[in-house]
Amino acid sequence: MTANDADPVLELEQLRVAFGREEVVRGVSLAIAPGECVAIVGESGSGKSVTARSLLGMAGEGARVEAQTLRLAGRDLRGATEREWRGVRGGQAGLVLQDALVALDPLRPIGREIGDALRIHDRMPRAERRARTLEVLADVGMPDPATAVRRRSGELSGGLRQRALIASALALDPPLLIADEPTTALDATVQARVLELLAEVRGRGTAVLLISHDLAVVARLADRVLVMREGRVIEQGTVDEVLRAPREPYTRALIAAVPAEVPRGAPLSRPADSDANATAAQTPTAADRAASREGSPGSTPLLALDGVVKTFPVRGGGRFTAVDDVSLDVHRGETVGLVGESGSGKTTLARLALALTAPDRGAVTLDGEPWSALDEHARRPRRPRIGAIYQDALSSFDPLWSVGRILADAAGGAPGKGAGTGHPSRAATARRVAELLDRVGLAGAVAGREPLTLSGGQRQRVAIARALAAAPELLVCDEPVSALDVTIQAQILDLLDELQRERGLAMLFISHDLGVVRHMADRVAVMQAGRIVESGPAERVFAAPGHPYTARLVADAPRLVH
Amino acid sequence: MSELELRQTTVDAEAAHDRESSRRGPRVGTVVAGAFVILLLTAAAFPALVATQDPNAISATEAFQPPSAAHWFGTDESGRDVYSRVVAGTGTSLLIGVTATAIGLALGLLLGVLASFGGRVVDFGVGRLVEVLFAFPGLLLALLVIVVAGPGPVTATIAVGLSTAPGYARIIRGQLVSIRSSQYVEAARVLGRPPRRILTAHLLPNALLPLVVLATLGIGQAIVWAAALSYLGLGAQPPAAEWGAMLSAGRTYLQTAWWMTVFPGLAIVGTTIATTVLGRALARRERGAR
């Protein structure tokens, strides 16, 4: 490269990006030196991704990009043509996106994906290209690169796929790597490995621009942090300065919203910053919590799984055991957290609890009565006793239905509401819908909206309202906040917590995020390869893990303070 | 890398374009097509309002008149006004197109629901049946039906409907299978909704909505097929004013009286284009809504 080592790889001054009249980036300046990692944090819509994409000339169709300085590896890129930008992408700056499954062509072997970058930019001869592909795959820690080059992205696990994507971004040895939410879609353990890999890349002298909403990830990798909000950098400094002694209230709210750092029962969202949810829950004392938890070990559990086994046929014969001899109780008013990596059988366990799938062996009982053993016809009238909340709320709504119709439908089916009279009147239904919306902190006008037009947090609130409409005793929450920004996540967790206390709900709370589970659960069960390897009171399990797998999960979970 | 990004940018651009055009309101083509369809519907419902003369009034002295102020589309071999006959044929053609499509949809729906709910054996049987039907060119299948049932407008309609059914059946089956495993159907089950309710509240509306779009496109095709059958003398019979039959009658005089075939032909082309344009506009709207 022409640039001297002391010169910054990237110099950016007063970047402004506008779509039509709407300015989404309003004067962002930053510089990154070789071997340095600078992170931009902020919620979705803060302009952090657009900033990153502008550095590659990919701000989007119709974007107006202006900057006083935009210099990458010593080259002025203001007013660069599309052709020049193509040289920059991959050559001067590599990009790693959140989901490698989407970012890599599913029909092409990864060796080809990486080789292409070399062929297009360097016109490298075939043999050399192959050697470089293997080298770069080895660099990113891909096991057995010689076989890996022939595999397609769909055949790789999430972590390996992300490694392949990083390899393709690094193939041309660019001085700058832009990582946009590189680990958001990954499990804690895999995430830890990918972060280690990025740290290695940085150690080799590559500058890294990290875009993330996850402060814990940032704390682990970055040297300096920029906090963005509404297109502006509102605070910046070293990681220690920003995370330990934040100056801006917004930054403080972001940090406070990280659930791992907040004790059980204390609210995560600051009333000042939670516009949608103004009701601040007061912190209950330990006595309150104990009193609200009627379920003592002696009483009948609300939901009980007893020696449950579930297998699925595998293509090419044999069966895969998704849930292997699992026993788990959930008592009234109690939250049981279920943690584990993806593929460990958490979701299958949720489906068993919801009786959406029948166990091969063992039994699920509800309030001491048969649940999994009932036939669907007999179970249907009792189904409203268990509600479900999913990770992707949108796909759990009929795309043709408005919010009002979704809630009216759910409320209309609740037993005991307008008992004996058949259908409740139109006015009564409308009142009930308004009540439900109000309870989850949404305006009544939302009833007329289509779920598609709502934000992620609002959608999850509607999903919670729907679950509440049937007046359930147990909520099964499968990764309910995994798709949300940390501040929105905090609001949703607070809402669930509040509702649980208010209605004495029992909850089976499934998440791969240890911090979230730690904040929400009274008891936790740790799942690995279909088995529960450890369970017990949340504080005890996380503070003193009894099983090596739990210990590894706890060690790999990103934390703000190390 | 850059390839992917380009793809992403294109998608963004398309989305932006869609947003842009929806802000500007419907496109010009959609408006023109909509106006034409309204004209067609008026002609079909109240032919007397739109026609200038009695479509069946014979006048030997006025045979083979070229288009003029008195006879906009000229006259045929019996001196009948071609414009009024085209107008009179609108109802027949549209009725055949819509009825045939409805028959195809209904049959497709029946087969699709059977295949997706009848269990493995039924699914297999319906699947093979649909494949066999697919193997015949559509028009050939229609001809086969007419050979068995005899010519006439009613059989032609049924024949065209039958030959479009396999395509609809396959799509409906696919839709139902994917919707049945969707999370919103699961959410309805969790709320304790019975299967019948899930079928009528979620499955059918969501499976049929994309088909409405497809059916609009299908109406144009059905009209062309029905006209083709009439042209072959297997559909509506002369002297009935039907576009395909008029084409057929005019072909003998193509050298001397081009207007006898060109205007009914234009009516068929115009109708097909208009319904297709509207169908596509509907499809765009639906895509935008998702």
From TrEMBL, chain A:
Residues 10-255, 303-554 form the ABC transporter domain. SUPFAM superfamilies: P-loop containing nucleoside triphosphate hydrolases (SSF52540). It is found in: Cell membrane. CDD domains: ABC_NikE_OppD_transporters. Residues 276-289 have a biased composition (Low complexity). Gene3D superfamilies: P-loop containing nucleotide triphosphate hydrolases. Signal peptide: none annotated. InterPro entries: AAA+_ATPase, ABC_Ni/Peptide_Import, ABC_transporter-like_ATP-bd, ABC_transporter-like_CS, Oligopep_ABC_C, P-loop_NTPase. Residues 265-302 are annotated as: Disordered. It is a peripheral membrane protein. It comes from the Bacteria. Keywords: ATP-binding, Cell membrane, Membrane, Nucleotide-binding, Transport. SMART domains: AAA. GO terms for molecular function: ATP binding. Its main location: membrane. Belongs to the ABC transporter superfamily. This is Dipeptide ABC transporter ATP-binding protein. It comes from Agromyces lapidis.
Automatic annotation (TrEMBL), chain B:
Residues 90-279 form the ABC transmembrane type-1 domain. It is found in: Cell membrane. PROSITE patterns: ABC_TM1. It is a multi-pass membrane protein. Its main location: membrane. Residues 14-23 have a biased composition (Basic and acidic residues). Keywords: Cell membrane, Membrane, Transmembrane, Transmembrane helix, Transport. The chain crosses the membrane at residues 28-50, 94-117, 129-148, 154-172, 203-228, 257-283. Residues 1-25 are annotated as: Disordered. InterPro entries: BP-dependent_transpt_permease (IPR050366), MetI-like (IPR000515), MetI-like_sf (IPR035906). Belongs to the binding-protein-dependent transport system permease family. This is ABC transporter permease.
